[in-house]
Amino acid sequence: MILVEIVSDIHYHNSGILQKTRYILPEEVVDISTWCDFTRDKIRGDDPMGKHIVDEAKRCLQCKNPRCVKGCPISTPIPEMIDLLLEGSIHEAGEKLFKNNPLSLVCSLVCPHEKQCEGHCILGTKSNPVQISSIENYISDYSLDVMDLKAEEKLQGNIGIIGSGPAGITIAFILALKGYSVTIFEAHDQIGGVLRYGIPEFRLSKDILSRLKDKLVELGVVIRPNTLIGPVITLEDLFRDGFDAVFIGTGVWKPRKLNIKGESLGHVHYAIDYLKNPEVYDLGEKVYVIGAGNVAMDVARTALRKGAKEVTIMYRKGMEDIPAREYELEYAKIDGVKFELYKSPVEITKEGLVYVETEKVMDGEKEKLVTKDDSEGLFPCDSVIIAISQGPKANIVNNSKGIETDLRGLVVTDDAGRTTREGVFASGDVVTGAKTVVEAVRYSKDVAEAIHEYVSGKYKNMNEGQ
Ligand code: FAD
Predict the structure, then answer these.
(1) What is residue 323's predicted lDDT score, i.e. its pLDDT?
(2) Given this model, what pLDDT does residue 152 score?
(3) 227-243 residues labelled b (16+ CB within 10 A) or e (exposed)
(4) Is 400 in the pocket of ligand 1 (CB under 6 A)?
(5) Are 126 and 181 contained in the same domain?
(6) Are residues 86 and 234 in the same domain?
(7) Is-above-0.85 flag for pTM?
(8) How far is the CA of 428 from the centre of ligand 1 (A)?
(9) Is 399 exposed, middle or buried, given 0-12, 13-18 or 19+ CB atoms closer than 10 A?
(10) CATH at 165
(11) Segment (H or E) for 294
(12) 328 Cα nearest atom in ligand 1
């Protein structure tokens, strides 16, 4: 009798629940095809996660004009993926999803689905929408490792990609699949950008990024880690060394300052720095987070998980104004994060956070926020983390010629991601300012096509001139 127990699937569900599925192989020697059938039966049968997915998939009405697709920034082929899943073609469904969005698996976990696909599902008007994200997650998770990715052909052209966040990864996949030689330059030691060094592990498993990296390497993409382009290697160096086109997808990694006294003290940190590696911080027991966006929620929830006893978000407006996603706010509350509303920071001291109270008043027709007189107070705390947004760093634009930026330091491009320097393209947060993963992917798909057009045109002209 052969009894093999395999911990085979780990699902990170939108609800944040980790589910492990244990499969026990039948008492027979199984060849691989039997194993696949067995696995498929498990998806459809008594595997509770698979059953949930099938039940959800069956609820889809297959609308003629699917509103879910219109609600998705990247037009995920939702009815087709559901159809394929139910007819037993999960791999085909996975390939379709990947082709449309190489970060489908990531998006299934971190997109604001309630505003996008699920928020537009017709069933949601009277009851619960189909849990599209869970279905996409199941399919993309299942198919990522087994998908056979091969370049269509070998093309002439050498492309340098600076930054390996969602924008850089998308461009790398699309151009490597077309057959170009692709090299990624990444300032950090691992790929992923915010996906690895911003979004906490409890929301997005870093294992997904390692799996995406394996796929890139399989396709022949060269990854050069720990390489900050700009101060040492410049754009000029890349062109000198034979890169035909360069893509900039460097994101927004410069924290916005509060510009108040005390900001340089040892117990004051910036959100984006803290999230990179929370383990190295000793925050103490009582922590204040300034700001109330998604990043602030991630910081507060991480600090609690790393041992802080009390974490409070301080925000200058009311609960109804909080810019974070509703779900992120709910999760923060569930995790025990406290809130101090209508308070604005004026100074940080060794003892804690000095604030003034604020209130909304009417100024003619308009509402405005003012500080209350004589309302200053101190919240004693051990650490303060500032989470009031990020802007782009200038490593590349300050050290290379011809890349125009706007007043916020964002790279100026046309609709296809062409910068003001020939052969240099850009997309993602470094162009749009802080947005979302799916926005970075959507934009980068168009930019990849523009790079393809540019490089293929260059070689066509060269070959015709020979
Ligand atoms: P990034 O992800 O920032 O990647 C840029 C990469 O470039 C980084 O790896 C960086 O190290 C590298 N780099 C920078 N400069 C250089 C250089 N000079 N040389 C070499 N490499 C360089 N979006 C969602 O959709 N859902 C979420 O739940 C969500 N949560 C978020 C949580 C946090 C804490 C943050 C900060 C953002 C979150 N976002 C979320 C936003 C989303 O992650 C970003 O919009 C997205 O990552 C942008 O992708 P990008 O490729 O443009 O940039």
Answers:
(1) 96
(2) 83
(3) ebbbeebbbeebbeeeb
(4) no
(5) no
(6) no
(7) yes
(8) 8
(9) middle
(10) 3.50.50.60
(11) helix 294-305
(12) 28
Q: Does the CB atom of residue 199 touch ligand 1 within 6 A?
A: yes
Which of 103, 204, 397, 437 for mutating ligand 1's site (highest number of atoms within 8 Å of CB)? 437
The pLDDT assigned to 51 comes to 73
C-alpha 127: how far from chain center: 29
Backbone phi and psi for residue 451, each to the nearest 5 degrees, phi listed first = -65, -40
Last residue of a domain, one of 110, 144, 178: 144
Say if ligand 1 is within 6 A of residue 428 CB.
Answer: yes
Q: How far is the CA of 249 from the centre of ligand 1 (A)?
A: 9
pLDDT at 464: 79
Residue ranges in the chain modelled with pLDDT below 50: 1-45
CA distance 464 to 5: 61
Q: Find the domain containing 186 and state its range.
A: 158-253+392-465
Interatomic CA distance for residues 107 and 121, integer angstroms: 17
What CATH number should be reported for the domain holding residue 124? 1.10.1060.10
> What is the sign of the dihedral through the CA atoms of 104, 108, 114 and 117?
positive
The pLDDT score that the predictor gives to residue 38 is: 39
Number of independent structural domains in the chain:
3
The per-residue pLDDT for range 247-277, each reduced to its tens digit, is: 999 999 999 999 999 999 999 999 999 999 9
What is the predicted pLDDT for the residue at 465?
A: 72
Q: What is the pLDDT of residue 284?
A: 98
Take residue 4 and report the two structure tokens written for it: 């093999």
CA-closest candidate to residue 173, choices 196, 147, 199: 147
Indicate the residue type of 170. T
pLDDT computed for residue 466 by the predictor = 64
pLDDT value at residue 188: 98
User: Which residues sit opposite 312 in a β-bridge?
Assistant: 288, 338
Residue 135 near ligand 1, beta carbon < 6 Å = no
- State the pLDDT at residue 48: 59
In a domain, residue 150? The reply is: no
